[in-house]
Amino acid sequence: MTETTASGPLTGVRVLELAGIGPGPFAAMLLADLGADVVRVDRPGGPGLGVDPAYDITNRNKRSVLVDLKSPDGPPVVLDLAGRADILLEGYRPGVAERLGVGPDAALARNPALVYGRMTGWGQQGPLAHAAGHDIGYIAVTGALGMTGPADGPPYPAANLLGDYAGGSLYLVVGVLAALQHARATGTGQVVDAAIVDGTAHLTAMIHAMLAAGGWQDRRGANLLDGGVPFYGTYETADGGHMAVGALEPRFYAEFARLLGLDDAQAAARADAGRWEELRAAVAARFRQRTRAEWTEVFEGTDACVAPVLSLREAPRHPHLAARGTFAEHAGITQPAPAPRFSATPGSLRRPPARPGAHTAEVARDWDVPGLGEPALEETEPQKGSPNR
What we know:
Blueprint: E1 14-18, H1 23-33, E2 37-42, E3 62-66, H2 74-82, E4 87-90, H3 96-100, H4 104-110, E5 115-120, H5 135-141, H6 161-186, E6 190-195, H7 196-203, H8 205-212, E7 232-236, E8 242-246, H9 250-260, H10 264-267, H11 276-287, H12 292-299, E9 306-308, H13 319-324, E10 327-330, E11 333-336, H14 360-366
Parallel strand pairs: 1-2, 1-4, 2-3, 4-5, 5-6
Antiparallel strand pairs: 7-8, 8-9, 10-11
Helix pairs in contact: 1-6, 5-6, 5-7, 6-7
């Protein structure tokens, strides 16, 4: 397919990604969406995600080269690439990159201005640094998982969005871009240790402030933002759908109560915490009288702060998201468009997901790394496995 010219605020920034799965590739995708020239170093045999590379949108806007880091020729090639990069991203367990010969000391010796970003769950130091893990464990120990779920039920994970991507990928991106600013000002690179436990803990800053001030109870379903109040939560509709209610402010609540059809006595229960279960029952009963589509029509465009709970396949068709282009069709895949947006240097979807090794010769030429050679592209079955982070 036709590939457009690179655009975005990071145009001209070179990023070397050592292939992994999860938060590392997502961070590299975000940098690529914003215009960076991201080269992914794939290993023969595949990345282990278990997804056909043609559908792995976390590899969009990237180029891929095949390098076997376990062969004698592999590490020198990666170091040659690192010598021409601004940022390197890796998501191995602590010590693995060093054993492979592509750790921070070797890379920074080759390129003193390099920003070396390390994506892990537990971080580079600490008692659990070398242990395997996944999103659910990382958010569990930070207190974040303990805030989810109903008061009378178990906590539940929100896929891997909170730990891997919010607490991991986004903090890695912020970290490497801050370090890149420093490197460009001083000529000195550094290592960025982005641990999912650190980032997820950081995300709870406001909750810790409320806890310290006495405005948050350290238990589920008992607070303003965790479903503890009847005017902030989800309700089932007549057809089994759900509506999300966030009518926190009094004037928004008044609009919500009016449109929902609560009488004055029912609506007044908001001011009396002792009547909240009564109010919750009244709100639930009203929502069960109409379908999700009917309630959506009632609340759409108002200040009641109510929205339908949509599935992943429904979300791209939401009128507001469709009008903004929040989702896009690219390479035959419906996917989130680049974010955030820039008035002068917009990001773009330029390349489909990179097939492992598809750009080896191209990158060898563009980055002037003749040692890459032109290995035959390998068709491999996707391998399922645990992320080595």
